[in-house]
Design a protein that fits this description.
globular, 366 residues, 0% strand, mainly alpha
């Protein structure tokens, strides 16, 4: 009987929701990757900071405006007054993480980027354990290890399909950029988890809009002014920029939702499928060679993501607290004891009266 109850709890709508939302995040990441690759390959457009700038501007227009019209301690001015330097560092980490991983493709191979970018996951786990006091079981570590093996199968399929893309002009520099980017992504993701679970999603996105727009504008003006001037603007290029901005804006909106109901580690495991979605689309758009290892890798990653989510729910779900309904007794604990004999675990108070009852009242009675 207990096993059936636990099975219903683990294979619940919460787990299914985490899986579905996690894969929506992967599809949005896939959308940003495919549009960037299409612009670079077909139109010789390579402007990662301009693309990021568009997303941060949307966050600024939507969520920073929401914060500006709030009242009390949650409005924009009070947040800047209390925590501006923290968000300044977070915004810098987020902007540079995006830039460094994209920049690394110029110096190292696709295979190296795919493998080293997974370094984000153990860093997130370590930071979550140290700063958020996250709890992990052996199955969590086993799940991560198997997921990384799934990524290995994907990289093996790339090599067999001839998609390794050469040795790169400076492999050491490129690999170093990926590792730094992975570290910054981990810092951003763990900070995001803390903020959305303890403050609000609107505050996180609004402040990221402020500092992300500022940093990306400065960096774009310094590093990409020549590339932007060389862009041959036409309807398709503009459409690709719009699609990228919409996908990135959707990603930044959905990511905090998934992190709030799961964790930064869980999300990073789930989005490992983003490269696989890009590969599937690339078969039609870029004439990639199909390999059965892609399917194997997808099945492994999704299965292990499911296992990780199930184990995590067993840790993070709080025990149910007895509900107190108020209606008119001076001694609520005594009344609970009386009602317990009648099979009723509630107590009622009349209007104007109140009581605080510990969740462990049963142990006090016995």
């Amino acid at each position: 009987m207990i096993q059936r109850i636990q099975a219903r709890k683990l294979f619940s709508w919460n787990v299914l929701k985490i899986i579905i939302l996690g894969q929506l995040v992967s599809l949005l990441i896939c959308g940003t990757g495919v549009t960037s690759q299409y612009m670079a390959g077909n139109y010789k457009v390579n402007t990662p900071m301009l693309q990021s700038f568009l997303n941060y501007c949307l966050l600024l227009l939507v969520y920073t405006t929401i914060l500006a019209f709030r009242k009390g301690d949650d409005n924009l001015w009070m947040i800047l007054k209390k925590r501006s330097w923290k968000y300044a560092l977070l915004g810098l980490a987020d902007v540079e993480a995006n830039y460094m991983v994209v920049k690394a493709y110029q110096y190292t191979t696709l295979t190296s980027v795919q493998l080293l970018d997974c370094f984000t996951i153990p860093i997130v786990m370590g930071l979550s354990w140290f700063t958020l006091h996250s709890k992990y079981k052996v199955m969590h570590f086993v799940s991560v290890l198997i997921c990384l093996l799934g990524v290995g199968a994907m990289v093996g399929a790339d090599a067999l399909a001839g998609r390794e893309q050469g040795a790169g002009s400076n492999k050491v520099l490129g690999d170093g950029l990926v590792l730094i980017g992975a570290l910054l992504y981990a810092i951003s993701n763990v900070s995001e988890e803390f903020i959305v679970k303890n403050l609000s999603r609107e505050e996180f996105l609004g402040m990221l809009g402020v500092f992300g727009t500022l940093y990306s504008a400065i960096q774009m003006a310094i590093l990409e002014h020549n590339e932007i001037a060389d862009v041959q603007w036409d309807g398709i290029v503009v459409l690709l920029y719009i699609v990228f901005a919409v996908c990135m804006f959707g990603l930044y909106n959905l990511m905090p939702v998934v992190i709030k109901i799961s964790s930064a580690t869980s999300v990073n495991l789930g989005i490992l499928t983003a490269d696989l979605y890009s590969l599937f689309i690339g078969i039609f758009l870029f004439d990639y060679t199909f390999s059965g290892l892609y399917i194997l890798s997808f099945i492994v990653i999704i299965s292990v993501f499911l296992l990780y989510s199930i184990v995590s729910i067993g840790i993070t779900e709080p025990p149910p607290v007895p509900q107190v309904i108020c209606t008119g007794f001076d001694n609520p604990v005594l009344e609970l004891e009386r009602n317990k004999e009648d099979g009723d675990d509630s107590v009622h108070f009349v209007s104007g009266e109140s009581a605080e009852i510990a969740a462990v009242w049963k142990s006090n009675i016995h």
